[in-house]
Amino acid sequence: MNFKNKELVVEFLGFLFLVAQCLCMVEGEIHFYDFVLREKNFTKMCNTESMLVANGSLPGPVIQVHKGDTVYVNVHNEGDYGVTVHWHGIMQPRNPWSDGPEYITQCPIEPGSNFTYEIIFSTEEGTLWWHAHSDWTRASVHGAIIILPTRGSTYPFPKPDEEEIVVLGSLYSGNLNAMLDADIRTGTDLPHSIAYTINGEPGDLCDCSKETTYRWMVDQGKTYLLRVVNAVVAADIFFAISQHNLTVVGMDGHYTKPITTSYITISPGQTMDLLLTANQSLGQYYMAARQFWSQSIQVSDFNQFNTTAILQYRGNYTIPSSPSFPKTLPLYKDVQSALKFTTRLRSLASKEHPINVPLNITTKMFITLSMNDLECRNTTCTAKEGENILAAGLNNISWSNPGIDILLAYYRNISGVYTTDFPDNPPSFFNFTGEDLPTSIALTELGTKVKVLNYNEAVEVVFQGTNLMAGAGIHPMHLHGYSFYVVGIGLGNFENETDPKGFNLVDPPEVNTFEVPKNGWLALRFIANNPGVWFWHCHLDRHMTWGMAGVFIVKNGDTVETSIRQPPAYLPSCRVPTRPRLQMSDGFEGKANESSFILLH
Ligand SMILES: *[C@@H]1O[C@H](CO)[C@@H](O)[C@H](O)[C@H]1NC(C)=O
Ligand SMILES: *[C@@H]1O[C@H](CO)[C@@H](O)[C@H](O)[C@H]1NC(C)=O
Ligand SMILES: *[C@@H]1O[C@H](CO)[C@@H](O)[C@H](O)[C@H]1NC(C)=O
Ligand SMILES: *[C@@H]1O[C@H](CO)[C@@H](O)[C@H](O)[C@H]1NC(C)=O
Ligand SMILES: *[C@@H]1O[C@H](CO)[C@@H](O)[C@H](O)[C@H]1NC(C)=O
Ligand SMILES: *[C@@H]1O[C@H](CO)[C@@H](O)[C@H](O)[C@H]1NC(C)=O
Ligand SMILES: *[C@@H]1O[C@H](CO)[C@@H](O)[C@H](O)[C@H]1NC(C)=O
Ligand SMILES: *[C@@H]1O[C@H](CO)[C@@H](O)[C@H](O)[C@H]1NC(C)=O
Ligand SMILES: *[C@@H]1O[C@H](CO)[C@@H](O)[C@H](O)[C@H]1NC(C)=O
Ligand SMILES: *[C@@H]1O[C@H](CO)[C@@H](O)[C@H](O)[C@H]1NC(C)=O
Ligand SMILES: *[C@@H]1O[C@H](CO)[C@@H](O)[C@H](O)[C@H]1NC(C)=O
Ligand SMILES: *[C@@H]1O[C@H](CO)[C@@H](O)[C@H](O)[C@H]1NC(C)=O
Ligand SMILES: [Cu+2]
Description:
Layout lengths: L2 H25 L2 E15 L2 E8 L8 E4 L3 E8 L7 E4 L25 E7 L5 E7 L9 E7 L13 E10 L4 H11 L8 E4 L16 E4 L4 E8 L5 E6 L4 E6 L2 E8 L2 E3 L4 E7 L6 E9 L14 E7 L21 H8 L20 E13 L12 E7 L2 E3 L6 H6 L31 E5 L3 E3 L3 E9 L9 E5 L4 E8 L18 E2 L1 E4 L3 E9 L3 E7 L2 H5 L3 E6 L36 H4 L7
Parallel strand pairs: 1-4, 3-8, 9-12, 11-19, 20-23, 20-25, 22-23, 24-32
Antiparallel strand pairs: 1-2, 4-6, 5-7, 7-8, 9-10, 12-17, 13-16, 13-18, 14-15, 14-17, 18-19, 20-21, 25-30, 26-29, 26-31, 27-28, 27-30, 31-32
The structure holds 2-acetamido-2-deoxy-beta-D-glucopyranose (12 copies) and copper (II) ion (CU).
């Protein structure tokens, strides 16, 4: 080989290296996972219950990737009913086909069949999670997703010595989805959990649970990155670790300015990255969590269980008879502590992790969140003639799932599945947060109304909590397909002339779920640059099931790169009737009626 050729070879290798690097940066790595969903008996709280779980574990398997990777998850449904899985907080650019909410982007994966999700990681970095998005199956089908910085880069904080995952969950007694179906049809209250869990275990303070309490072994002097997921079905949670402060460095797959705190408030759907320095004396310390109850303070029969796990120092020492309990864990109704924590959160907004808050808003929406009454007679419910049933709504519309998914109807131009008249404003203005609001205006109607957004629209949404039915409480609102900036939070009624003056456009937190405070409002902004069909809803599943949900259809841009991708070759069928749920009895004609509108039972 002469000199010249050698040079060429070197040049060619260099070129290959560059190509590889570019591909790597653009495409990341590809991973394959198989999730097998199957019923399994678990004995917890002196009670044996069969639950659908992924690969036999509760919580389910962890997915670990680097930023920019792609993951294929082949979900095998070996359970008894249809299921879908959602990849919470992952934007899935141009790929709503793999987002997962049932009847929004797909029909359920039938028992005995499988479906492969293609999960495209783009700007997310930190901790997110996956969960079932059909019925309340997510109570037992969920797990963490770890997104490490791109290969060759690192965290925007000193590298922790080790990492740990804490998944907060909730336990139910009985066949949860069967109870849910019955309650939906009769229009009564939906099921309540019997305990909360840390990594699947209720912990020492609950009956029959001491032997299985989760233990986290630490070494004195080390710093840990604690990845916390709130997978609870329907409750905000306070969490603290005895005698250890926590430093929040990330949330919902985005970095935050570090804040040191002795407890966190975390809504269902949210994830947080916390640093913990194990520098206390050798011993055992409880990590504990309990519900933050924001509804009527007169109510006392909500789930008041304290779930615990043990942080245990390794070493040769006499273990105390009982670990210490965190004194800093707020009590159930401590609205002040909840708000004090959530209003401290800020984006990191650094040169390496910039933010891009839309300033020139082109679509403004003002959306009321309400508990409502619904007339039974116009739905498939079985309450007595003339009776009203419980419901919830957005701008006085209570979301009703159609019989085939909205995405397919939109993509294939199938009419009669949804309408595009979701209103930008509530039908009437009143003192939203007033006391003793008339019950007459609490009546709502079912609807499958979507809001259509043009590609690249700069959107501002103000969510206004209401006290209709004396049902004021927090609502952790979650948007699929996007992260959004929380530019404002306030109590009382939103004042559209004065409140915007106080918006944080400098370092607002970038999240996918954020709670609207009780009798308050939340202002958020995002650029509609991800074409697709995207569900948004309260992440308290009680409220979502009652209809506190909506859909954005974001239209394609002008190019292929700004348009929805081709659908996968196979999508679960909508023809097979799945599980019964509340529908409009005389709603849409045609296509929707042919399929799973039919009630099985
Ligand atoms: C789940 O179980 C299946 C079947 O046993 C196995 O092939 C797969 O690797 C498991 N997946 C994970 C993420 O552990
Ligand atoms: C769970 O236990 C019940 C009662 O012992 C049994 O009938 C059922 O088959 C078990 N289910 C599974 C999935 O093992
Ligand atoms: C179902 O799983 C098999 C292998 O287990 C795979 O070859 C097939 O592509 C999967 N089908 C879908 C629709 O994901
Ligand atoms: C936690 O932080 C607070 C406020 O900074 C401080 O007063 C307290 O001593 C810290 N506690 C521990 C255990 O480090
Ligand atoms: C433990 O570490 C935290 C965080 O680095 C620090 O604020 C605190 O003062 C330390 N406490 C002790 C007892 O060293
Ligand atoms: C949880 O802890 C609080 C305060 O420590 C206590 O008042 C409450 O009774 C406990 N809950 C249960 C169910 O034991
Ligand atoms: C633990 O400490 C005790 C007393 O300090 C000592 O007698 C014993 O040998 C130590 N055990 C080990 C395994 O180091
Ligand atoms: C804001 O957006 C509108 C519509 O896209 C455009 O006409 C206008 O020039 C923009 N204004 C600024 C200040 O960018
Ligand atoms: C309910 O259905 C009846 C006809 O069956 C109709 O007249 C009425 O307007 C409907 N009410 C609502 C609230 O949709
Ligand atoms: C709305 O109701 C709240 C709570 O009763 C009250 O404090 C407030 O003054 C009312 N606002 C208006 C404009 O009437
Ligand atoms: C919501 O709509 C229902 C039915 O059309 C109506 O009776 C009720 O007054 C409306 N409520 C509000 C707050 O606008
Ligand atoms: C505030 O809302 C009122 C209607 O309630 C509307 O007329 C006005 O234009 C709004 N102002 C702004 C700045 O959006
Ligand atoms: Cu809610």
